[in-house]
Amino acid sequence: MTIHTLDLKFLGLARAIAVFVVEGPKGVALVETGPHSTHERVSELVSELGWSPSDFRHIFLSHIHFDHAGAAWVWGRQGARVYVHPVGRAHLMAPEKLYQSARRIYGDQMEHLWGTVEPIPESQLYAPEHGEIIEAVGLRFRAWYTPGHATHHLAWEVSEPGGNAVVFTGDVAGVCINGHYVVPPCPPPDINIEDWLSSIQLLHALPASTLYLTHFGLVEDKVRHLHDLEKRLLAWANWMKPYAQRKAQVEEVMPEFLAFVREDMTAAGIDAATAACYEAANPAFMSVAGLLRYWNKKLFA
């Protein structure tokens, strides 16, 4: 098994969004697709590696957020089978509600950021069960339900028969641009701290020691990485709780949250260019909205 990490150069930034070509003894598969706005670049990078889009018959998605799955419809239309969590499957078949919801957030920047989205034929979609193994390209892709970041989130454990395994973690293992500083992406509406902590424990329990993050790339020290993620997830959630208790609005919280995160980044030695990549991969306003929503449901529902 050979893994090729493709940098989509989202918004012109290196190491913001990745997709992965997984080369097995019987062909190639793609893990994540990136947004439709970067599909042309993915096609070019695949071509540089010596393949054409028609060589990819299996597309494995971690979840349906546009930075991970926005171009999945193109691959599905070309005849590839797209593997997605059962909750996400219906949205890929009929994406209008998902797209319009995002448009209310991003406004006239929607197409620039994410491109367009079209339905994927039902015949091209497959929703695995928790722990189910998909045999593809001579490899074993095992689906693990890993909610917390999103209810429709999967991590994919990939192995050769009798060989070592790696895990493609989507967003459940956080965002780590510079190799050591990891943050939890917390957009609305699905953030659930308790579920996320359980998913982190699932990742700990898997025998694979190597993780691949969509934001961004290879993580070899799984134990340290997941420990740091859990610590920062709890720190962000606990920081946000008092604001939720007094029913603060996103606009009020944003400046203070940005200052809180920037102070932590500065202490960790994150420079301005790298901080910009973190912001592109994990916009602060989304985490404020998501964490406030989490606490509002927990405190006032």
Describe the structure.
With 301 residues, the chain is of the alpha/beta class. It has two domains: 2-226, Metallo-beta-lactamase, Chain A; 229-300. It has eleven helices and twelve strands. The strands form two sheets. A six-stranded mixed beta sheet has the order 1-2-3-4-5-6. The longest helix has 24 residues, at 222-245. It is globular, with a radius of gyration of 18 Å. The mean pLDDT is 95.
Given the C-alpha coordinates, what overall shape results?
globular
Number of domains: 2
Query: In percent terms, what proportion of residues is strand?
Result: 15-25%
Radius of gyration from CA coordinates: 18 Å
CATH class value of the largest domain? Alpha Beta
Total count of strands: 12
Q: Are there runs of 5+ residues with pLDDT below 50, and where?
A: none
Elements, N to C (H/E) = EEEHEHHEHHHEEEEEHEEHHHH
Largest sheet: 6 strands, mixed
- Helical stretch tally: 11
Rounded mean pLDDT is 95
The structure class reads: alpha/beta
The CATH homology group name of the largest domain: Ribonuclease Z/Hydroxyacylglutathione hydrolase-like
The CATH architecture of the largest domain can be given as 4-Layer Sandwich
Features:
Metallo-beta-lactamase, Chain A; 6-stranded mixed β-sheet; 301 residues; 11 helices; alpha/beta
Give a brief description.
By secondary structure, the protein is α/β, with parallel strands linked by helices. Helix content is 42%, strand content 19%. The protein has 2 domains: 2-226, Ribonuclease Z/Hydroxyacylglutathione hydrolase-like (Metallo-beta-lactamase, Chain A), CATH 3.60.15.10; 229-300.
